[in-house]
Amino acid sequence: MAGLELRDIRKSFGNTQVLKGLSFQIADGEFLSLVGESGCGKSTLLRIISGLETPDSGEVLIGGGVMNAASPKDRNISMVFQDYALYPHMSVAQNISMLLIMARLPLHARLPLLNRISPSARALRPVIASEVEAVAKQLRIEHLLNRRPAELSGGQRQRVALGRALVRHPKLFLMDEPLSNLDAKLRVEVRKEITELHQSTGLTFVYVTHDQTEAMTMSHRVALLEKGELLQLATPSALYADPHSVAVARFIGSPEINILPAEVSSGIARLGAEMVPGRAVNMDGSTLFALRPEAARLVDRHDVSTDFKLGFTRHLTEDLGHEVLLHGTLDALPETRFRMRLPKTSDLLSGTSLDTALHVGFDANNLLFFNADGARLRDAAIVAEASEAAQ
Amino acid sequence: MTVTTSIQKPQSSWLRFLASFKPKSLGDGVGTGFLFLGAWLIIFPFVWMLSASLKPADEVYDSSFHFWPQTFVGDVNYYGVLFDQPYLTFLANSFIVCAGILVVQLVTAVPAAYALAKLKFRGSTILFGFVVASLTIPINVTSIPIYLGLVKVGLLDTYFSLMFPFFVSVFAIFLFRQFFKDYPDSIIDAARVDGFSEIEIILRLILPAAIPAVAAFSVFSVVAHWNDLYWPLIVVQSQEKMTAALSMLQYQSEFDNDYGRTFASATVVTLPMVVIFLFARRLFIRSITMSGIKG
Q1: At the N or C end, where does chain B have fewer CB atoms within 10 A?
Q2: SS (HEC) of chain A
């Protein structure tokens, strides 16, 4: 049974089409990330799933049932918001218990004064308190229960927001950029905690983020959205290694993939002024060559071990300790930025200045090919002349 | 060598108080002078009111002004105002009218403001435009139709008729809308996911956050309707329904204007507001700065 299924969801605000017919399924217990630039419609989609927004057309199925007409509280979902959205004038315990109070007490028992004498409120209060405590224990926030949100740090607020979502035991757990207000170190920590939470609860998670690292590290599958359309829905490794389009290739991976414009005519490809060694198969006209930064390495001027060897001008070096990032341009394509990720600083770099001529080597089978519109050319290849001659 | 100790000499608090008026510079002195002038312009009518309330009517007309009356009739004037007429009834009437108006204004304005600030619905912009536009209609325009309507249903000279035109305060809707707009949408969304109804969102989330705005508006509304003379003058016919402000006019007639008593009456009508002001000064000031309108 699908945890969540979307069928041709469309939504417009005024004249802007925000979602242009999205359909996909998420398995029960799956962790799916919705990723994209801001304005791609990912948050709107999450709000449609939660019921806070209604789609213009299309169907939302949660646990197999069509939920289009159901209000947010009837969908059995929980949502964690970017700014945590805690009730500012209530204590942490009240924040977490609010949902239970709303769900279990009749209206008259929720009114001030009456809630003190109503028998149902009296009977339920200890039950609710113990459930709140259990959730607080799970998230290690028992000692904060009497504080107000204003007295908490960002990470603590985040935990309270998670607690408020957990106490419901929902079918579907929705998160809208929950880490974007945390500092970098805490973000990595909470990222891990959310992953553990997913593993321990086994719930279906839909996680919205603009940060591809979060999406790649946490999810089973990632849905990449652009301008209201689903570019690709795949596992993180598939997205990285096998992008359908140049937009996906660009979005996934940091530093960004290198996109090299090439001109191909009758089997001969050129990168700027430089002729590419080997024969170009199934490419024509303007073509894009894409190369992950780690697929390139520095080579000696006389090295012939790689298919490609191109002159490189370095503009900037970022030494991260465990790896080195080089930013610069290929001499053949002075207009196009070229990034390299080296596992450690290279002998070829030692004693060089930014002016020193360097050479970049990479192999043809590491290249991805796209046509000028950005669509992947799956059957394109660069075939070495020599090997073909040998056949 | 003699040490000048006069500077360090401990001064009495009274001297320190006087010394605080000493201007630090010429510009400062000029500024203080202007402030004193401004304060005098505001206070003088009250001083005059107090002074006149102690005088017989003919002395009020006197061209030469003495603060202390030449013929002191303050005791007579105040006795008449406090005991020859049902002064407490007037106060009670004013209280009932102000409280009634305020309660209904809040009950109508808060949900309306919430809807205009936070709910998306067709025509909300146009509706808000109407709200703002109706801020410009003075009560004088609507008072005659409302008066005629009240005559038709036979409700003149009732508390209802005193309160009715003010039940919906456009100003309150406007003020609260601006205040509610700043409330984070995500908290409202979270509340919807938690199962709050819209009314509960207002009562449990928005109102607790809007207490400063509600308090400020309450001050504004109570002061305005306590001091209102125009509408009570139109709909009140009997002494039992007179508000405190209206009761002053009892000493005015075509043939005899007892200004001494009128001003004694004005003094006792103003007094409750002055007392409240002394206790809730910060609230008053906030209401004026928040609304951007001088009361």
Answers
A1: N
A2: CEEEEEEEEEEEECCEEEEEEEEEEEECCCEEEEECCCCCCHHHHHHHHHCCCCCCEEEEEECCEECCCCCHHHHCEEEECCCCCCCCCCCHHHHHHHHHHHHHCCHHHHCCCHHHHCHHHHHHHHHHHHHHHHHHHHCCCHHHCCCCHHHCCHHHHHHHHHHHHHCCCCCEEEEECCCCCCCHHHHHHHHHHHHHHHHHHCCEEEEEECCHHHHHHHCCEEEEEECCEEEEEECHHHHHHCCCEHHHHHHCCCCCCEEEEEEEECCEEEECCEECCCEEECCCEEEEEEECHHHCEEECCCCCCCCEEEEEEEEEEEECCCCEEEEEEECCEEEEEEEEEECCCCCCCCCCCCCCCEEEEECHHHCEEEECCCEECCCCEEECHHHHHHC
